[in-house]
Amino acid sequence: MSVSARIRSHAAASLHSDLQRALDEYDAFKRARTLSQSFKREPLQWLGATEAQRMMVTLQAELDSNKGSETHRRACFSLICFLVKKLRALPLSILVIQNVERIGQNPVAGGGFADVWRGTMNGKAVCLKVLRLVTEQDEGARATVRKRFCREALVWRQLKHPHILPLLGVNMELFLPSFCLISPWMENKDIITYLRKNPDHDLYRALIDIAAGMCYLHSRDPPIVHGDIRGANILVTNDGRCCLADFGLALVTSESVTQVWSITSSGTTKEMYMHLAVQWLKL
Question: In this structure, what are the phi and psi dihedrals at residue 217, rounded to the nearest 5 degrees?
Fold first, then answer.
């Protein structure tokens, strides 16, 4: 074995060891918290910013590989959620896309905490969802919005299904100091707009598409509840297929939950009660 090969082998073994150490430590932390026991300190303090980024990339690679048991994948997802929340950052080397350009000088739409721009990537139209940080003066509110945005990107990144709008990646430079989530541009827009222009569209097919997307979310391990199913968040592809979009309120849960937190238009948090799928309600 060559010197370079031995170095790579040693680095891989070291990274695997660190990954297992992090998974074990975070699992112990969760168990202690569940049992209302005190934990001497916050877990993973031995991870610096650079090491944490490397750890997130490794965890995402584990999730993308579809290898290992469901228990292992669940532990990896739980840990990467914790790191994203702690750092308010994402595994950049996997998610970042550079070759994207925006079109025009103004957004085409806006929501509570983000603006929507049209852009291009490799000659194809894309949607750029831009975190609205510049106009928010309150530092605490900015931190909350950024945390929610990172969480949306992380949850969205794990989803791959014909009736889920895919996340293509993230760009950190186009809208400095903010960043944007990149997804395919839907010329047909949302289902409400589409039905106005196409009143003869098969409604039964649309409902089947939406149900298939929701069923996929609920079948994840851990399950995911969208939290904001409505016409504006159901987009229509060029071939008339419905896709669920906007995972800003998505709730990753391991049990029945009827209470989540959302961001108001001013950036502050408020308590909301969502109408969840029947299978998540304890009667």
Answer: -60, -45
